[in-house]
# Entry
Amino acid sequence: MTGREFFTARTVSDALAGFRPARRTATEDVALDAALGRVPAVDIVAPEALPGFRRSTVDGYAVRAADTYGASEGLPSYLDLAGSVRMGAAPTVAVPAGGCVAVPTGAVLPGGADAVVMVEYTAATMPGTIEITRPVAPGAGLVRADEDVAAGATLITAGRPLRSAELGLLAAAGVGMVAVHARPRVAIISTGDEVVPPSTPTLAAGQVRDATASALAGLVTEAGGEPVLAGIVPDDRVALEAVLREALTDADLVVISAGSSVGARDETAGAVAALGTIWCHGLALKPGKPTLLAECCNVPLLGLPGNPLSALVVFRLVGVPLVWRLAGCEVTPPEPTTRARLSRDLASATGRLDIVQVRIRDGVAEPLFGPSALLSVLTRADGYLVVPEPATGLDAGSEVEVTLYR
Amino acid sequence: MTGREFFTARTVSDALAGFRPARRTATEDVALDAALGRVPAVDIVAPEALPGFRRSTVDGYAVRAADTYGASEGLPSYLDLAGSVRMGAAPTVAVPAGGCVAVPTGAVLPGGADAVVMVEYTAATMPGTIEITRPVAPGAGLVRADEDVAAGATLITAGRPLRSAELGLLAAAGVGMVAVHARPRVAIISTGDEVVPPSTPTLAAGQVRDATASALAGLVTEAGGEPVLAGIVPDDRVALEAVLREALTDADLVVISAGSSVGARDETAGAVAALGTIWCHGLALKPGKPTLLAECCNVPLLGLPGNPLSALVVFRLVGVPLVWRLAGCEVTPPEPTTRARLSRDLASATGRLDIVQVRIRDGVAEPLFGPSALLSVLTRADGYLVVPEPATGLDAGSEVEVTLYR
# Structure
């Protein structure tokens, strides 16, 4: 009880800009059906042009555009039907001057043609002859052989998580395996004499089940990481150092969910200082002040506040961008947001980022208060709003942007 | 080439409101570490109060609040230090009148105490005596035994996907298994004589690799479903009916990625009509007009347009909400959005929903045009904007909301 923490407080934006570990996870090859959300380690270049052939984009007739010039409902062009193209097969006829070939959407354009007239602007009134009632320009109704992707063009850019559309483009290009960064392994160490595993059926006096580790594991998974629960360590420097050393051999990021007492937090800072370099201890953030950022043996380390709510706020703001960065993704993918009107005045200290949990009803954001020891504040929240560092608060009725929990 | 499609076009909002299959997936029990994003099938009630004991929320001294009334820096209250409470253990002393007990954050409040004074407002100037320099009210510095959750209160509400915070609350309550809806199995049937598997090393003339199925599988996975690739069927009614019958025995939703030709689309509609009831064929949507919604043997069925871009637009708008609904979640979780200024005028037909792919640079949304046969339009896009049914277009410079692809 005699200790006082030494805070060299930094703003959150300082921490995000300044604490930038060089570590990146190794590269591994994954099949396309397991690649969603994974971060490509290298650019992927198109091995061939796509679609690879001149392709009709409409159901209609392949023509020489010049043969349709001047055509109208009143004075159609009459073209000789030279044949048709089957889907998925090479054309067996070409379009002669004054002729046309029937093509379905997606078929190969026959030789000689430079445009396709939509079936809607044609009529087959006499056998072997097609009436064209509208002129087309060269290039109408088709895509070029390299219009989707040119051979050698970049299909996929390194560092950007793969989305569904990219999976489609890779499939189209016949790329079945992708080199991606391994999922960052995030070791989660829980500390505290009072903390027991969630599986504990009956609690003794003063014990609490480890809620933070399970919630952190969820956030790690959402950020594309692989959570590794490293267990619960009592408030004992030697024990914590041993678990920390072990975690550092295998993890890409170590997260310590510290005990809530000042003694526990002191032990954590001491153990971390013994194994690496503390970059900052203290963020100008509420909740989340007693946050610790360090690097040990080339592994970044994040020491979280003891209260579950505070720990989760800090991990969202600081930990999630770190997990993405370790996987080679510099820009954290966006979260859902919504705008709402604030239901009441919110006070805030200048120079500090305030994270306020809110419920949203009918476009009104209602702040949820309560000690950060209470996890139910988070489960009742639809999202959070940020009162930025320079502000001294927000007025009731002002429009705020709320980041929504998914 | 002679067929014309018969469209009974509906608006997208009509389709979302009106096409509401009753099917829900079965319930299964999953462990907490596999429950992220899953949809609880029933409410979960707290088996006991949380935290379960009166708990200090600060490092300090447990007191009888009345003993601190009138205390100030100039005129402190002096209280006898009766002992201390260890983390995670039952107190061995109570707070007598005129006394106090040292408590760390998170410890059990000793008997007799009704408040905790923060250590910052105390001094230990004489052995066995603590100076209190600020008064506290009853209830200060603590949470009640049932303040996080009361025994019997609802921890988790059915029908809402589990977020990280809920995983934490369930862990705190000692709930290790959760009854959730099974992931909806979504059979994806690709059709088209021109379509070949993505693994095809060299394409013959007119062939294209199946891009849509891989991209759809990604969207299904994001929506919490389990994609089942049911293979590629040629444009043949009998073959399609056979694959459809097989898929209907096992799937919760069947998606047909139709061939692009009008013939292929006719075969699809015919096969579906033979096995079930078509709810609508045609949406007032661009791209995405030739969409088919049906129900066959109690399984909803979605027939997508032949172009990959159109197919993915329709699946996002109509398929994703269906997948969530099948898993018991009525409100589709929000997607990330951002506001941007439109770079140019956009024309649109009244009565039709237009989905426009956009790139965003420095707050400006630049529409991406190109035939919907081109998947690269989607991979270049950061998101899409919606021109609603009543609008005839949007003006350059107007503020638009863009849904961002993750």
